[in-house]
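A further point concerns the way the authors explain their paired sequence and structure data. For illustration, here is how one protein appears when written out as sequence plus structure tokens:
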Amino acid sequence: MSAQLGAGHIPADLIPPGTDPRTVVVVHHRPAPRDWTGPIFLALIASGGAVGVVLTLCLLMQLTAQTAAAVAAAAPVGVGLSVSLGRKGK
């Protein structure tokens, strides 16, 4: 029925009995145009947050690598696990 009204046709069941169909006017309610400000703002905030998370992870990885290098440089030689690749026997 909404397709008929949208095309300008007036269904007979909407016209009261005894009324001339040429005098009937159907008024359509059209919704307001969509406001895209909210969804665009939300997308910008979400993408900015994702970039922030990636940058934070990169900085943490860099800090971890620097700390590991500093600990390795500060450790005395010979401390830790040593692996020997020599052969046993003769």
